[in-house]
Amino acid sequence: MIELQHLNFGYEPQRTILQDISLKLGQPGQNVIGLIGPNGSGKSTLFLNLVGILRPTSGNILVDDQPIDYRKKGLNALRKKIGIVFQNSDQQIFYSIVKDDIAFALHNLKLPQAEIDRRVDQVLTELDIQALANRPIQYLSGGQKKRVAIAGILVLRSEWLLLDEPTSGLDPDGRARMLALIKGLVARGQKIILSSHDMDFMYEIGDYFYLLNAGHIVKEGPKDQVFADAALLKRSQLEQPWLVQLSQRLGLPLYQNSEALFADQQLQQTLRAALAKGE
What we know:
Helix content: 40-55%
Number of strands: 10
CATH architecture of the largest domain: 3-Layer(aba) Sandwich
CATH topology of the largest domain: Rossmann fold
């Protein structure tokens, strides 16, 4: 469990970015938590506070009921618990060869080489990037770099994975692969917090959402509640996911994802009948 208690943060005294944020992350039913909001709302700043890169101006962050220890040893322990993958994967890729980069943090932990090799092989298999193991980083696509960056965090076996704009810069195939990857991680018990402007992607993968605007949490709840408020989303410069729009504008059921929509045989029969009448 991660708990924020009246968290405030500002880079300067007169410039507050996050204001009185109180929330609990990791409650039942929150397997994939979404953090949404317009540019400048404080999403990335909140992520950086969660991993201890930034320190709150006031308020507290508790991880498993313990406040973050900002000394070096405490931060090292925190980053084994909570890992972050930045929007720009190049920010956290240091080595020229994929497998060396994934192993980087494990060498810092001074693990035995056999254990390092075992973990690297395991995460390469989990992410289906074994073929990239000996590839130079410079020849990877944007989507491949994101998977390598994720591998570099998963190899630490962090309980929490923070993904900042995971679909940014990806083509449709890369987006689909990212969606499948996240679903696979969740299926094996990984706790994930996402931040993205891609509302269709967020609706498809997320369970519980926090809407952040001007440094405040202005709405929270399950996805069917948060995305139902079209007016609030518009004020926050966000669009409703297409599945929600279909439900509200055409009176269709609110499907949890596109797979559920296309698997609805009754809906397909109704549409065929309507098309036949139109002929």
